[in-house]
Amino acid sequence: MRVLVTGATGFIGRALVPRLQRDGHSVVVWARSDARALALLGADIDIVSMAAGQEALVTAISRCDAVVNLAGEPLLGGRWTEARRAVLRASRIETTEQLVSAMEAASPRPRVLVSGSAVGYYGDRADESLSETSSHRDDFLSQLCQDWEQAAQRASASGVRVVLVRTGVVLGRAGGALAQMLPPFLFGAGGPIGSGRQYFPWIHLHDLVKLIVAAAGDKRYVGAVNGVAPEQATSKVFARALGAALHRPALLPTPSLALRAIFGDAAVVLLASQRVEPKVAQGHGFVWDFPSLDAALRDIFVGAPVDVSSLKTAPAAAPGAMFELQTSTLVNAPIEQTFAFFSKAGNLGLITPAAMKFRIEGRIPPMADGAVINYRVQVGPLPIRWRTRIVSWNPGRSFADVQDSGPYRVWRHEHVFTAQGNQTMMDDRVYYTPRVSLVARLTNRLFVAPKLRDIFQYRADVIRLRFGAAS
């Protein structure tokens, strides 16, 4: 299929794009910024700019078989003032209305619209079991979800199959709800939210995008679908599982009054209880890769093995290097396909955490000996310019790059590809020395090595989404 995606640069969208590509679908992104979309989503997408207007959107949709609508400002982006409520509504409802109007004008029309919603549709329901047929409530969040769904449902009058994915809390690496929850847990001050008795519907990011792809391709999915895992958990159970995954205590609750003082009415997102069951997905035989909370958190926090060690002697190719990073990834794709993906500089942003704001500056040269690539990244609050140069280029087998200028005193990254039947073993070795050499070992242990592990583990997650889990 050819699939148009809105909200593609968000936390869920960045996982959905490679997941769609893995199944052979081509992706068109409706984006506010062409440059940002290309930087974050890689070289293998097409873009239709929002600035190009409705006619361009209609033309793009006419060439698509499916539309996935993930647009929407974060619910916890600030207190729900009148202005903030207007932003939340416009980013969901008005965007969806514009999208559906374009679908109505398109010829031919896409066969299916999968549109986002949230379990907030159900309101605060204590321990009542909730399925897709359960009623809604009349609070702001529930009404927002109702209006959002109604805007999407209008497409059904034009013969488009409409699926409404009511998403719970999405758990994944390098973003989403976990990024906001982690700091107190990492300092040993985490615990349940409020009373801890409220139900906390959740789903692993990889399972959510798998469900979206299934809903787009399977005609049995029509109407509301709860995007949650089958295992239910209260806030107390979730806090205990998160603490265990991090090897930290989870005993200090966050009082409801404190949350209401910080977030105002928006605190309902954290305090409401929704015991949601994924009845529709279960009825259609959907299989979760992470059906249990422990399995989901273990996958997120353990991640791919990345070894960082001190060097006794620097290799001849990287004189002055003090440390070596090693990681190996079995890619579920033949070597030609794997090498083609990783040798495109335009795909670097897709395999880099979004918080680093990766962006290539200027023209992207063809990969070859001597090719130079200039890009910018951000580490914490610090923007960094980086110039890398290809110093070894063996198509289909290996390549190596070195830093000409940037945050390291020494940096050499070697990529080696080995065919294993229809799969590929990719071995990475990075030889490096931090810029602050006088305290390099302390800097490496506290900051550099953990950051590099995060980056390479994130990359392994994207590889799994893009090519499937290798066995």
Structural class: alpha/beta
Q: What percent strand?
A: 25-35%
Total helical segments: 14
How many domains comprise the coordinates?
2
- The CATH level-2 architecture of the largest domain is identified as 3-Layer(aba) Sandwich
What summary fits the major beta sheet? 8 strands, antiparallel
Helical fraction equals 25-40%
Low-confidence stretches: none
CATH superfamily of the largest domain: NAD(P)-binding Rossmann-like Domain
What's the number of extended β-strand segments? 19
Biggest sheet: strands side by side, in what order? 12-13-19-18-17-16-15-14
CATH topology of the largest domain: Rossmann fold
Gross morphology: globular
What is the terminal separation in angstroms?
A: 27 Å
Rg, nearest Å: 23 Å
Task: Describe the protein in words.
The protein is α/β, with parallel strands linked by helices and 471 residues long. It has two domains: 2-301, NAD(P)-binding Rossmann-like Domain (Rossmann fold, 3-Layer(aba) Sandwich), CATH 3.40.50; 307-467, 2-Layer Sandwich (Alpha-D-Glucose-1,6-Bisphosphate, Chain A, domain 4), CATH 3.30.530. It has 14 helices and 19 strands. It has helices spanning 11-22, 34-41, 54-62, 82-105, 140-153, 176-186, 205-217, 235-246, 256-263, 268-271, 279-283, 293-302, 335-342, 440-467, and strands at residues 2-6, 26-31, 46-49, 66-69, 112-118, 129-130, 161-167, 169-171, 202-204, 223-227, 275-276, 307-310, 323-331, 359-361, 372-379, 382-394, 398-405, 408-420, 423-434. The protein has an eight-stranded antiparallel beta sheet. The longest helix has 28 residues, at 440-467. The protein is globular. The two termini are 27 Å apart. The model has no long low-confidence stretch (mean pLDDT 93).
